[in-house]
Amino acid sequence: MSFEILFVERLDHHARDVSAGRLRLDRSAFNRPTLQVARDLLGKFIVRSYRGRRIDAMITEVEAYKGPQDRACHAHGWRRTPRVEPLYGEGGTVYVYLVYGMHWLLNFSTAGGGKPEGVLVRGILAGPDGARKPVVGPGKVSRFLRIDKRLDGTDATDSKQMWLEDRGVGIPAKCVRRGPRVGVDFAGPYWAARPWRFWIEQQEDA
């Protein structure tokens, strides 16, 4: 069974009881060890309220960044500038930054206030009210969700502009892969090799 079929079946099942199938992630979901949060975000839904309509997407790929000791993290060495300040916020604070002068990247702070760690969203599955299609790449994710600098610093645990939901879609361990993060060779071989990227493998039908 392909993952997309599994996704649709889970949606159909949970649509029978919307109140039970949609649980907004609160602070406790983010104020945990970053690698745990990263893995657990797979299968959760980002909900974006944009110009009177809602955009829904399920998270399928993430990367974890573990703060001051992580040479690939923007807060390496306790670096603290206005740009990275959202990483120091309580878990669930939105951190949006620009790369290559054109791509906005969406992150959520983790681990608790004062601990500048976070998770980058690299891939989503669009739906359920739109075409179910994979959106791969953090820049494409933000473009699809209409995310830019205006959401930087937003608290996703109480925002009306964007939040995350648990809709009961469990991701079996056999469908989860992990490996090195993308584009962090500048951090040196040790940190570039950390297996802190998690994704859902798109399996073929049996």
Shape, please?
globular
Q: State the separation between the terminal residues, measured CA to CA.
A: 6 Å
Give me the strand/helix succession.
HHEHHEEEEEEHEEHE
Number of domains: 1
Measured on Cα atoms, how large is the radius of gyration?
16 Å
| CATH level-four homologous superfamily name | Methylpurine-DNA glycosylase (MPG)
For the record, the CATH architecture stands as Roll
CATH topology: 3-methyladenine DNA Glycosylase, Chain A
Number of helices: 6
Largest sheet entry: 10 strands, antiparallel
SSE diagram, text form:
Elements lengths: L2 H12 L3 H4 L1 E2 L2 H4 L3 H8 L3 E6 L2 E13 L28 E6 L3 E8 L6 E10 L7 E3 L1 H7 L17 E5 L9 E4 L9 H4 L4 E4 L6
Antiparallel strand pairs: 1-8, 2-3, 2-8, 3-6, 3-10, 4-5, 5-6, 6-7, 9-10
Folded structure, characterized:
It is a single chain. With 206 residues, the protein is α+β, with helices and mostly antiparallel strands. The chain has a single domain, classed as Roll (3-methyladenine DNA Glycosylase, Chain A). The chain contains 6 helices and 10 strands, in the order ααβααββββββαββαβ. Strands 1, 2, 3, 4, 5, 6, 7, 8, 9 and 10 form a 10-stranded antiparallel beta sheet that branches.
